[in-house]
Amino acid sequence: MEPLLLIDIGNTRVACGLFANGKVVDRGHFDGFSQKELRAFLRGRKFYGCVFASVVPSGSDSLSAFWNASGAGPLCRLNWTVVSKALKNKIKILCMEPGDDRAANAYLLRRQGLFPAVSVDVGTALTTEVLDKNGVFVGGLIAPGEILQRLSLRVHTAQLKDLQKKKAPKLFGSCSETAISAGVEGLLTMGLMSWLSKMEKEVLGERFRNIVFTGGGAELYFREAKKIFKPAVLDPDFTLKALGLSFFDEDMRKLYEKKQGVIF
Fold this sequence. Notes:
Nucleotidyltransferase, domain 5, 5-stranded mixed β-sheet
């Protein structure tokens, strides 16, 4: 069987790859979804079918239009509606449903079977998904990531507009550039470590058995987490892998057929 195409459309970056034999075997990234960029990635590559996740409506629409014109097999969207049953969700969502990428990460945590579990996805935003000791989704958090925090300082201050990013050598910076790095990276890191600890002690009542860091900015947080949390792992392909595995999951295929009218 030809590889499966995977696409994760984020607010800042699009990740795509090919999936074969249970692994992401080829991958690419580009800024913002465009049919031109996708054609360039697909040139010379053979594939059948696509599973995608998207938090950008215009990107979803553009991909659907591209796919309808290409006729390259089934197109499935992994979203909360499709994956919630697989997560045995017991929370009634009273506001906006979690984004597709969050649904994908929670799905793969559930599939891995080590609970309690949490995924930490670091991109434009920092998001987490938590499954309790029974593998039930209990919620998570969404916080502005480093990109958004730095952008906010540039937009809403008079003297910090054109400063270059510099690594902070300590807990504090000796100039504005390093002070920003200490404030943004340092406080985000410390805040996340504190939150993970509080989730263990005050909500779950036991230690996490699975902590997965993913996303373009995850390595910084993973390096700090592995000093404190033994189960911490870094998996840059985690979300793409979730998309690929869902295509070959019999229960998920039935949901894709029922909820989205996909014909396999």
